[in-house]
Model the fold of this input.
Amino acid sequence: MIGIGVDIVSIARMKETINRSGDIFLKRVFTEKEIENSLDHYNKDVYYSEIFAGKEAVFKSFCVKGDHRIEWQDIEILHGECGAPAVALKRYLRRLFDEKNGRKILLSLSWEPDTVIAFAALI
Done:
């Protein structure tokens, strides 16, 4: 195992952020595919909270605090087999993954009515 990361997000806070910043926030943090997938989700606030928490957990698993070369959209979280989250890495983060001899990233997302939690393992 190379690293682990965990993050927790308040669904209400995510809703407030989206309502306040709208498309500016969404387009800065989420990929086009992630935004497109939100249209099929029954609760967009939960969806965006899950994806955001997942991105944070993946980022933390790399243990690269303060590296300004990493952008939010370098991590894309989509639904893989059986609906489980699947992580795709892009640009600098993909190169870093290869440098660390990463084999895969495991990601688990779960939520309660007010919070979302994400756990990522870089192996």
The beta strands are 3-10, 75-79, 85-89, 105-111, 115-122. The first strand starts at residue 3 and ends at 10.
